[in-house]
Amino acid sequence: MEKYFDAFSNAFMGTLQWTWKSILFEVPWYTNYFWGLIAISLIVWMLEIAFPWRKDQSIFRKDFWLDAFYMFFNFFIFAIVISGVYKMLAVLFSDMGITAKSLALVDISAWPMWLQLLSFFIVLDFVQWFTHILLHKYRVLWNFHKVHHSVKEMGFAAHLRYHWMENVLYKPLKVFGVMILGGFEPEQAYIVHFIAISIGHLNHANIKLTWGPLKYVFNNPVMHLYHHAYVLPEGSYGVNFGISLSLWDYIFKTNYIPEDSGTIRLGFPGDADFPKDFVHQNLYGFSKPHKKG
């Protein structure tokens, strides 16, 4: 039992120290996720200010500061707390004889680095697309995902407004995706991280951007706005589930963009009664079962 406690403690303190060193610029700039997130956020926010899609939307839109808090909570505070738990699970799996290559379908370690990174990006994005569908399809998961869909005015920081339980679901499935690739995670994976954050911020930004012909490959603000639409196509539990890539929605026919005015109502039926503060939003999914809505 002691080794599990040590694993938890070492991971927790290691993540805490790395985050603090990041704040102090004591880690390589290309792996500095703290200031990298701030830099990406400022760039996309400046684009929102310079080229607003919904021109009547305030620069400091509704819940701007709440979403900003969610950004740092989910990416740093919660990451520090949960890191020890993940390390304990890793030790447990190791004791059970389950290694990073136990589920490997293909070994990509001999591939060129650019192809490894591309494969890593595509596989993880598909895993997240599939997980995202589960969040909408099943009531118990939807009640946690409602936090993200409680956004009433879209902006870059809405990207990371989500319940911490989503991390608990996403992380194991993403690890599973990595294990399929021979369990190999390139040292240059930070490139994928920053690309995904940039695309996610842009998808939620108050910017009218479609990528032209590349809209069938990359997710975009026009497409993702309809994912947050209050009114969905009849009989649907959601549309446009893509995270970074839109191609999964086009392949599996979950794409939906009826128009591009950007003026649609956001949210979900019953959101008027949804909690408005961080604490109660994060308690909501743990209360008694709610009706799907």
Give your account of this protein's structure:
α2 (33-50) runs parallel beside α7 and α4 packs across α6. This protein has 293 residues and is mostly helical. The model has no long low-confidence stretch (mean pLDDT 89). It contains ten helices and no strands. Helix content is 54%, strand content 0%.
List the defining traits of the structure above.
mainly alpha, 10 helices, globular
Quick description:
The chain is 54% helix and 0% strand. It has helices spanning 2-23, 33-50, 64-95, 113-137, 139-149, 165-180, 190-204, 221-227, 247-251, 278-284.
Strand content: under 5%
Distance between the termini: 44 Å
Roughly how much helix do the residues carry, as a percent range?
40-55%
What class do helices, strands and sheet pairing give?
Answer: mainly alpha
Layout of helices and strands, plus pairs?
Blueprint lengths: L1 H22 L9 H18 L13 H32 L17 H25 L1 H11 L15 H16 L9 H15 L16 H7 L19 H5 L26 H7 L9
Helix pairs in contact: 1-3, 2-7, 4-5, 4-6
